[in-house]
Structure formats: structure tokens, C-alpha cells
Write a structure and sequence with these properties.
Length: 320
């Protein structure tokens, strides 16, 4: 796919006070996977956490935080974990948004939408130049370019459009460079808060086309232009920017970026770190000895480890 559109951050709250019910009904995940890290977060006294998904409950006892119910916050990695492990279907965010939109008491305080160019429409150097020379048509007056250095060498740049305190802000950067990967990967990321966040989710449910919605929001907020008219609103939009936005419109569904299940990561670790030792046991004591160790170790499994087994087997179609 030339372009991808995905949720890269989500924070929402519901009036339900039972965090396990929220995990099960809104996230479609197994509550026993989540553990108490021993600290509060976001105005809540207690948290249940699985990876980068935090479910906050028991609001602090004061007028500002009362009646906050339960809050779920997931970073980019948390969103990928949710997509992989949720049992809400092939498009878990679509189902989650539908449930939030149907809940009159639900509130989305932040959603980040990442629009990724992997084809080569966008060039960071050209985008930086356009911003620095004010070749941009936008109602957002605040713009900045942050250039990073590794020693004396330039190590990438990030463009910000919009104020840090506003309900809508855009950042554009080289995601491949950030991740240390080869190839072309420029990310245009919209950070949407408060009423704008609720409105975006409502429209996502109504239209059912996240790519078109993302393109509409971008077109409404800003565009890179050629300075070929004294009136900025009549200036020609850059062909490469139009091509990128047009490509976004063709993205019908959220891109499901799958991460390894925790059991698969355990398997990879065993293979890398313990594989030679297992081979020694196999060639000396034989397979029955390894099998006996595994059976004996089952009684030492924690509740979280047992939940991981059940969760993985449910995806693989294995019954206990």
C-alpha cells in the first residue's frame, strides 16, 4: 500500500467505574492480562496496565477529578497491541469507535491520526523549505521547524503546524529515520484533542472511511502551495501534496499494523537465548526430560502468564 492511515494515540473515558468491565466491553481484551503497576496516572489513584495500554480508575477525591469514571490511554505501541490482541474483529478501532459514539457519557480527550507516505510523495527537505519560506496556506499561525543533530551532523527535522496548546496540531517527520529503518517513510501526524477529538470519532463512525476523513481534515486545515498569486488563497497547491492527500482518500480502513503476541516474543527469546541449552538437554536426556520440565513448571505460572496462554490459544483456535 502506498499510504497508510492509523490511530497512533487514543485517550478516552467512560462513566463505568469497573476497569475490568471497560477492558472487556470496550477493548475486547482479557482483563487478567492487565496488572497493577503500583502507581496512579492522569488524576486517578489506580491503574491496570498491559504494555502501553493503561486503564486508570478510582479518580482522586476532589471536585476536579470526581465523576471521571474510568480512563483508557494507549500510546502508539499500545494502539498496535490493541489491534493485535483485541477480539473486537478485523477492524477493532472501528468497533471501539462505534461503542464510544453510542455511549452518551463517553469522552475522547485525545486521538492522534498518523498518515504515512511510503511511496515517495513527500520530501522532508522540501517541506522544511516550504514552512521556512511561508509557502503554506493555513489558518494555523504557529509553525516551527526543529532540527536535530548528532554531533555536528544533521540527524533529521520535525515540522510543527499549530500551537502546542491548541486542540489541533500537526507534526511531520521522517519516521524511517526515527526508527532506524531503510526506505521512504514520512509521517504526517494529526494530534486532535477535546471537542475536535470527539467530532473526529463521530465522523469516523458516520462516514466509515477513515482515509477520506483524514484527507478532508488536512484539506480544511492546511496545504503546501506555490507562490504564484498575491492572494494566498488563490495560490496553486503543490502537485506532490495533492497527490499525497488524494492517495489518503483511497484508504478505506485503518491499516492494521500487527505486532508480535507476547507468547510469540517469549518463543523468539527462548530460541535466541536458550535454544542451544535446550539442544544439549535433548541430545543428552532426551525429549521426555524437556517435557517433564515444562509440565513441572506449569504450577509456577502466574495469573498473567495463564491469561497469556488462554489469549494466544483463543486466536490460534486451541481449546483447553
Amino acid at each position: 500500500m502506498k499510504c497508510e492511515v492509523l490511530v497512533d494515540w487514543l485517550t478516552f473515558s467512560v462513566k463505568t467505574e469497573d476497569p475490568r468491565k471497560v477492558i472487556l466491553e470496550y477493548l475486547g481484551m482479557e482483563p487478567d492480562l492487565f496488572q497493577d503497576p503500583g502507581f496512579g496516572l492522569l488524576g486517578y489513584q489506580r491503574v491496570l496496565r498491559f504494555g502501553d495500554i493503561c486503564v486508570c480508575y478510582e479518580p482522586r477525591e476532589n471536585d476536579f477529578f470526581k465523576d471521571m469514571g474510568t480512563c483508557v490511554s494507549m500510546s502508539g505501541k499500545g494502539c498496535r497491541t490493541f489491534e493485535t490482541m483485541s477480539k473486537l474483529g478485523q477492524s477493532p478501532f472501528t468497533v471501539l469507535f462505534e461503542r464510544l459514539a453510542a455511549d452518551e457519557d463517553a469522552n475522547i480527550s485525545r486521538i492522534d491520526i498518523a498518515c504515512d507516505d511510503r511511496e515517495g510523495y513527500l520530501d522532508m527537505d522540501e517541506i522544511v523549505r516550504k514552512v521556512q519560506q511561508n509557502e503554506i496556506n493555513s489558518r494555523m499561525a504557529k509553525r516551527s521547524v526543529v532540527i536535530s543533530y548528532d554531533g555536528q551532523a544533521c540527524n533529521g527535522s520535525t515540522v510543527y503546524i499549530g500551537s502546542p496548546s491548541s486542540d489541533f496540531r500537526v507534526r511531520i517527520y521522517d519516521k524511517a529515520l526515527e526508527q532506524g529503518q531503510d526506505g521512504h517513510w514520512i509521517r504526517v501526524e494529526m494530534v486532535i484533542r477535546s471537542n475536535n477529538a470527539n467530532g473526529f470519532v463521530d465522523q469516523a463512525v458516520k462516514t466509515g472511511n477513515i482515509g477520506t476523513l483524514a484527507a478532508q481534515v488536512i484539506n480544511d486545515k492546511f496545504s503546501f502551495i506555490e507562490r504564484d498569486d498575491s492572494n494566498i488563497t488563490r495560490c496553486t497547491v503543490c502537485a506532490w501534496w495533492s497527490a499525497f492527500v488524494d492517495e489518503l482518500e483511497a484508504v478505506r480502513l485503518f491499516a492494521r499494523s500487527v505486532v508480535q503476541h507476547s507468547v510469540e516474543r517469549i518463543s523468539s527469546w527462548i530460541e535466541d537465548q536458550v535454544g542451544p541449552s535446550l539442544s544439549i538437554l535433548f541430545d543428552t536426556f532426551g525429549w521426555p526430560h524437556i517435557f517433564e520440565i515444562a509440565l513441572e513448571s506449569r504450577r509456577r505460572l502466574s495469573d498473567k502468564q495463564r491469561s497469556l496462554i488462554a489469549d494466544f490459544n483463543s486466536f490460534a483456535g486451541v481449546t483447553a
